[in-house]
Specification:
Layout lengths: L4 E5 L5 H14 L2 E6 L11 E5 L6 H9 L5 E3 L3 H9 L3 E3 L5 E2 L4 H16 L12 H17 L1
Parallel strand pairs: 1-2, 1-4, 2-3, 4-5
Antiparallel strand pairs: 5-6
Length: about 150
C-alpha cells in the first residue's frame, strides 16, 4: 500500500514541520494538502495545496477525516483525529515524530481525557514543551522512514 496523499492539520502545525513537508512532497512527487481555518501561504508547486475551511471547533479535523483514504498520511497533534485516521486505515503522525498506531491510540485517548478532567477540575497541568530542534529532527526522521516504506 503506498501513501497517496499527505494531509496536514495545519492550524497548529509548527512552521518547521510544514517546511519539512514541503520539501518531502517535492522530493517524492506526492500530494500535500494543508487544511486550516485561515488562509495559508504555500510554496508554488503542483504537489502542494491548501484548503481553507470555515471557523469552528474541529472543522479542519472533520474535513480531513471525511477526505482521507486508506494509506494516506495525516500530520496532526489532535488525538481524536488521529484515532479516526488510524481507524480508517491511514497513518497518523504528530509534529514531534510520534506515530499513532492501533496499539497506542487508545492509551493516548485515555490520557487526553484524563488530562481534560484534571483541567476541568481546576488543576494546572501545564502545556506541551516548546517545539525543539530534537522534535524537528525526530519528525523528519520518522517522516523519511514512513515515506521510504511506501
Amino acid at each position: 500500500m503506498s501513501t497517496k496523499t499527505i494531509w496536514v492539520d495545519a492550524d497548529a502545525c509548527p512552521r518547521a514541520v510544514k517546511e519539512i513537508l514541503y520539501r518531502a512532497a517535492e522530493r517524492k512527487g506526492m500530494t500535500l494538502i494543508l487544511v486550516a481555518n485561515q488562509a495559508l501561504r504555500t510554496p508554488p508547486s503542483r504537489h502542494i495545496r491548501s484548503v481553507q475551511v470555515g471557523a469552528g471547533f474541529d472543522v479542519a479535523d472533520n474535513y480531513i477525516a471525511q477526505h482521507i483514504s486508506p494509506g494516506d498520511l495525516v500530520i496532526t497533534a489532535d488525538i481524536p483525529l488521529a484515532a479516526e485516521v488510524v481507524e480508517k486505515g491511514a497513518l497518523a503522525l504528530n509534529p514531534r515524530g510520534d506515530l499513532y498506531t492501533e496499539e497506542n491510540i487508545r492509551q493516548r485517548l485515555n490520557m487526553r481525557d484524563f488530562m481534560d478532567t484534571l483541567r476541568a477540575s481546576g488543576v494546572d497541568t501545564g502545556g506541551p514543551a516548546s517545539f525543539s530542534q530534537a522534535d524537528r529532527r525526530e519528525f523528519a526522521n520518522q517522516l523519511d522512514r514512513l515515506l521510504a516504506q511506501r
